[in-house]
Amino acid sequence: MLVCVALAACHSNMQNEDAVKRGVMDYLSTRQGLNIASMDVSVAGMVFRQNEVDAAVIFTPKGSNAAQPMTIHYVLEKKGDRWVVKPRAGSGQNPHGGMGANPHGGGMGMPEGGGRPTGALPPGHPAVPPQDSGPR
Predict the structure, then answer these.
(1) Which of 20, 69, 105, 107 is the most buried (most CB within 10 A)?
(2) 49 lies in a domain?
(3) Are 41 and 58 in contact, with CB atoms under 8 Å apart?
(4) Residue 12 in 3-state DSSP?
(5) What is the CA radius of gyration of the chain?
(6) Domain count, the chain
(7) Strands of the chain, DSSP E
(8) Is residue 33 part of a domain?
C-alpha cells in the first residue's frame, strides 16, 4: 500500500522543470522537419496555475558554430499525468503562430532547393537587389 501512495504522489507532482520540459519535447517530437537532437533545450522559467503552466523555453544549436539562443513561450495544460502544449488562440494547432505558414513564403523562407528567400520583405526592410541566377 505504501508503494502505491508513493507512486501516486510522484505522478501528481507535475510542477517541476522536468515534467514541463518533457511536455515540450513530446510536442516537438511531433513536428516534421525539426531535428531536436541538434538543439540544447532548457526551461528558463515557469508560472504554474491550476491546470496550466506558462513556460519560457530556450533553444540553442549544438556545436562550436552555435548561434544565439532563441526563447519561445509555451502554454501547457495538464492532461492526466502529463503536460501538453496548447495551441495558441486563433492560430490552429501551431504554438509558433499561424497555421504553419511562413510569412516569407516557402519552407523556412527558402524556395525549393535553396537559393534566395522568397516572399515579401517585412515593412521598412531595405530593398534587396535581384540575384543573378546564371552559372558562376
Answers:
(1) 20
(2) yes
(3) yes
(4) helix
(5) 20
(6) 1
(7) 39-48, 52-61, 70-79, 82-85
(8) yes
End-to-end C-alpha distance for the chain, whole angstroms: 75
Q: Is residue 64 in a domain?
A: yes
Within 8 A by CB and 6+ apart from 55, the residues are: 20, 24, 43, 45, 46, 73, 74, 75, 76
Q: Per-residue pLDDT for the chain (136 aa), expressed as one digit of tens each?
A: 444 444 444 445 889 999 999 999 999 999 888 888 988 999 999 999 999 999 999 999 887 666 788 999 999 999 999 999 998 765 554 444 443 443 333 333 334 444 444 456 666 667 766 655 555 5
Task: Identify which of 60, 36, 52, 55 has the alpha carbon closest to the alpha carbon of residue 44.
Answer: 55
Q: What is the CATH number of the domain that holds 70?
A: 3.10.450
For residue 128, being part of any structural domain is answered with no
Are 75 and 61 in contact by the 8 Å Cβ rule? The answer is: no
